[in-house]
Specification:
Chain A: Belongs to the short-chain dehydrogenases/reductases (SDR) family. Chain A: It comes from Propioniferax innocua. Chain A: InterPro entries: KR_dom (IPR057326), NAD(P)-bd_dom_sf (IPR036291), Sc_DH/Rdtase_CS (IPR020904), SDR_fam (IPR002347). The complex is a heterodimer of chains A (about 450) and B (about 425). Chain A is an alpha/beta fold and about 450 residues long. Chain A has 2 domains: about 150 residues, 3-Layer(aba) Sandwich (Rossmann fold); about 230 residues, NAD(P)-binding Rossmann-like Domain (Rossmann fold). In chain A, about 40% of the residues lie in helices and about 15% in strands. In chain A, strand 3, helix 5 and strand 4 form a beta-alpha-beta unit. By secondary structure, chain B is an alpha+beta fold. Chain B has a domain of about 180 residues: Thiolase/Chalcone synthase (Peroxisomal Thiolase, Chain A, domain 1, 3-Layer(aba) Sandwich). Helices cover about 35% and strands about 15% of the residues of chain B. In chain B, helix 3 packs across helix 14. The chains are: A alpha/beta (about 450), B alpha+beta (about 425). Chains A and B meet through helix 8, strand 8 and helix 9 of A and helix 1 of B.
Chain lengths: ~450, ~425
């Protein structure tokens, strides 16, 4: 879908007109390119927490300047993990406000805190919980594609996990993730064998892979080094063939609701690719109708594909022959799962169900080193959202901090990151990829 | 180069759904169709970026610009561009003959893996200029002086404007294939009812195969078509009996549009490989391509029917392997017409025919109808000439593989395909 408005306000005349009229001014987002810089410009590191030296080292490793006297900044990282009283929070304003003022286009703010659930004293919990409100508000104040996100670290230091999360939020991979937080647990994550191809040697399965977000997931996982098996229904095999051929993967024609789907996926992965490490439950359908007019068929189909199939497949994938250590299960939830959507009682029910599903499945899979997470896209420019009425889509686009719809690749990047060995300290969570959409936030 | 010849594995296949002429694929060229069939095969077997020994395919109705049809199609796919593409042509035998060529190269150790295929479209058919106009244009091209050019142009006649449309008529007899078939059907006393029963069964069996998902890993949809659009699942003998006859003397005619294959567009591919290559690529062969035999008959001067060459190929092939018709679990006889199947079976059952025409001691034998074309054939699926061989070979390999998994033992199939020009190809497949 072409976002004509965004194109217009990024033209010379459009830009000045939008400025005079005070119209939204979305900018083209900075997205990951192989070999590209982590951030556009210097990144200031503020705070006195335990992570400062690691974060500075991360930036140095990427060749990013960390001086604090630059004209414009590519980003700023606040390490507030040691803040234990509300008074400590003032540190961000005192030392960061001036730098935030000088952030360039597509800049990044990352705040590192301590997971309040792991603290006991009311003042400590309140202080760390406060960071969430702070980040959400700051994200709404930022302009020109800049984002702000929060990393909640465990009390026991988990240095590689913090490094991986900060890196993701600084990078172009998180272009459409804004105003969100992730919690890291104490498990030492695995090591990405290669920076360019963090998923090298992994075998990944993507359901619903023929088009839209699924196709982008295949592409990004393959770019990151994974061998990808694209799964879709027989009727979608022509589109799927093009997707997997570009990714040099294999296609598998099956309906995820078939009783033997899990077994067949396992068999294909083990026989053809000698392993099975990552599954992305992306297959999903919409059958919109007001609840009072909803047919049994529409209700049942959506339940079967969007929720029941995942439960059924996970039974197999988390069984003895399934995913091994460092396995990854990643589901697709949706903004509708948080906020609901008129006409989508069935769809929203399944997408909210997914949030619960990953939360609980994560516990079951934890002792085997398998993480289970979900990604919840907001408005993403696909064939599916292209069928939305013009005005509805236009409003939905601007009703987010980034004032535009996301690209399928944005969802894929978040998934590819969660799939990395280095993301092993993240589980049971649902990460929104919505440009901080105001709905359901 | 030891242990020759090597076994040849049929790894799998892929085809487009077949479309009746001037329907779903009206605007698709042979290259589009063959590329689509290859794309699905490449995706299913993870061949992107891989160099294959060769891709051999062909088309019967072919534009002159498609002289490198297969190579151009390969270049349009994700295969390693260093994969050679070879065009062959043997009318309706093209697909199976392509497979034979690839299989032989694998058996000889010249290549390790290859794709055999075929494509045809009667929608995007080549239309040639009138022969008279062609002559004028050639003379014009050869002219060196203004006077010579003027002389060449003076040869133009109003009648030259009418183009030459492709036809399925036999050049040496001027008769259409249907007319030829009608003569053979009459000679073998094939009734209308026999033919309609074969046609109805073809539709019913193809529909049942779709229904049980048999084609899920044999077909990739194309241009919005997910299954063969000639298929009439509700076809039955009563409905077919109502159709008017189209070939032969109206007095004795038995052949209708319902028991003859329609003009069809589509493409098919089959992946063949050595055992080692299949193992290296973690692929389980469906079946083995054992051997093949081509034959031709003198339908111009002799008494033999145009489409009877496979009846000659099969006994020669069986003799080479010391096999009888009883030794096969499945038999695929390409349904150019329902009458083709009926005549072929009657010929093999006839002492006289087998003795006098085939030079055998007596009848070759009969075949249990339950073993013939078990998943439907060309009458239901349609028949894009060069694509039929690949369709039959891949489906037969899968059918045998399923049979073997169900019932164990070595399972064997015989394939018989007739072709224009009085030719035919037969092959043995084993699982």
């Amino acid at each position: 879908m072409t976002d004509t408005y965004t194109q217009f306000v990024n033209s010379g005349f459009g830009r000045s007109l939008a400025k005079q009229l005070g119209l939204p001014a979305p900018v083209p987002l900075r997205r990951h390119t192989k070999g590209g810089p982590l951030c556009d410009g210097p990144v200031a590191v503020i705070g006195e927490g335990e992570h400062v030296s690691d974060i500075v080292q991360l930036l140095l490793d990427h060749g990013i300047d960390t001086s604090t006297d630059a004209e414009t900044y590519g980003g700023v990282v606040f390490d507030m993990s040691d803040a234990r009283s509300p008074r400590d929070l003032a540190h961000m304003r005192e030392n960061g406000a001036d730098i935030v003022k000088r952030l360039g286009r597509n800049a990044r703010i990352v705040v590192v805190g301590t997971d309040p659930d792991l603290l006991d004293a009311p003042a400590e919990v309140a202080t760390q919980r406060a960071l969430d409100g702070f980040v959400r508000s700051l994200a709404k104040e930022l302009r020109s594609g800049a984002t702000a996100n929060l990393v909640y670290a465990p009390v026991e230091h988990n240095r590689p996990a913090v490094r991986s999360a900060v890196e993701f939020f600084l990078s172009g991979r998180s272009a459409f993730v804004d105003g969100q937080h992730v919690r890291l647990d104490e498990n030492t994550p695995g090591v990405n064998l290669s920076a360019d191809e963090p998923l090298a040697g992994k075998v990944a399965v993507v359901t619903g892979a023929a088009r839209g977000i699924g196709a982008a997931i295949v592409e990004v996982l393959a770019r990151d080094g994974a061998t990808v098996v694209g799964v879709d229904v027989p009727a979608a095999q022509d589109a799927l063939a093009k997707v997997v051929n570009r990714a040099r993967g294999t296609s598998l024609a099956l309906d995820v609701t078939a009783p033997d789907a899990g077994e067949r996926i396992l068999q294909h992965c083990h026989k053809r690719h000698g392993g099975f490490d990552i599954v992305v439950h992306n297959a999903g359908i919409t059958r919109d109708k007001l609840f009072v007019n909803m047919s049994a068929e529409k209700w049942d189909q959506v339940m079967a594909v969007n929720l029941e199939s995942i439960l059924q497949l996970n039974e197999v994938f988390l069984g003895d022959e399934g995913l091994g250590t460092d396995g990854r299960v990643i589901c697709l939830s949706s903004q509708s799962g948080f906020a609901g959507n008129r006409g989508q009682t069935n769809y929203s029910a399944t997408k909210a169900g997914v949030i619960g599903l990953v939360d609980t499945t994560a516990d079951i899979a934890a002792d085997r080193g398998i993480t289970v997470n979900a990604v919840a896209p907001g408005l993403i420019e696909t064939e599916m959202t292209g069928r939305m009425p013009f005005a509805t889509r236009e409003v939905a686009r601007r009703l987010s901090s980034l004032q535009q719809g996301g690209d399928p690749v944005d969802v894929a990047e978040a998934i590819a990151w969660l799939a990395q060995p280095a993301s092993g300290a993240i589980t049971g969570q649902t990460l929104r990829v919505c440009g901080q959409n105001f709905i359901g936030a | 180069m030891t242990n020759m010849p090597r076994k040849v594995a049929i790894v799998g296949g892929n085809r487009t759904p077949f479309a009746r002429s001037n329907t779903a694929y009206r605007r698709a060229s042979n290259q589009d169709l063959l590329t689509a069939a290859l794309d699905g095969l490449i995706a299913r077997f993870g061949l992107a970026g891989k160099r294959l020994g060769q891709v051999t395919a062909g088309a019967v109705m072919k534009h002159s610009r498609d002289f490198n049809l297969t190579r151009e199609s390969v270049l349009a796919t994700a295969l390693d561009p260093a994969t050679p593409g070879i065009d062959i042509q043997m009318a309706c035998g093209t697909g199976l003959e392509a497979a034979t060529t690839v299989a032989n190269k694998i058996a000889l150790g010249q290549i390790d893996a290859g794709v055999a295929g075929g494509s045809d479209t009667t929608s995007d058919a080549p239309i040639a200029v009138n022969e008279g106009l062609r002559r004028v244009l050639l003379d014009l091209g050869a002219a060196k002086t203004a006077a010579q050019r003027a002389k060449a142009l003076a040869g133009l006649r109003p009648g030259h404007i009418s183009p030459v449309l492709p036809a399925t008529d036999e050049p040496r007899t001027g008769l259409s294939m249907g007319e030829h078939m009608a003569r053979t059907a009459l000679a073998f006393d094939v009734t209308r009812a026999e033919q309609d029963a074969i046609a109805a069964a073809s539709h019913q069996k193809l529909a049942a195969a779709y229904e049980r998902g048999f084609f899920d890993d044999l077909i990739t949809p194309y241009l919005g078509l997910t299954q063969d659009n000639n298929l009439r699942p509700d076809s039955n003998a009563e409905k077919l009996a109502g159709l008017r006859t189209v070939f032969g003397d109206p007095e004795t005619a038995t052949m209708t549009a319902g028991n003859s294959t329609p003009l069809t567009d589509g493409a098919s591919t089959v992946l063949l490989a050595s055992t080692e290559w299949a193992e290296e690529h973690n692929l389980d062969p469906l079946a083995w391509f054992v051997d093949a035999e081509t034959a031709a008959v003198d339908f111009v001067h002799g008494d033999e029917g145009l489409l009877m060459a496979p009846t000659h190929a099969v006994p020669r092939l069986l003799a080479r392997h010391d096999l009888g018709l009883d030794d096969f679990d499945r038999v695929e006889i390409h349904e150019a017409f329902a009458a083709t199947v009926a005549c072929t079976l009657k010929a093999w059952e006839s002492d006289t025919y087998c003795r006098d025409t085939l030079g055998l001691d007596g009848a070759l034998g009969s075949i249990d109808p339950e073993k013939i074309n078990v998943n439907g054939s060309s009458l239901a699926a349609g028949h894009p000439f060069a694509a039929t061989g690949g369709r039959i070979l891949a489906a037969t390999a899968k059918e045998l593989n399923e049979l073997k998994q169900r019932e164990g033992g070595t399972r064997r199939a015989l394939i018989s395909i007739c072709a224009a020009g009085g030719q035919g190809v037969a092959a043995i497949v084993e699982a």
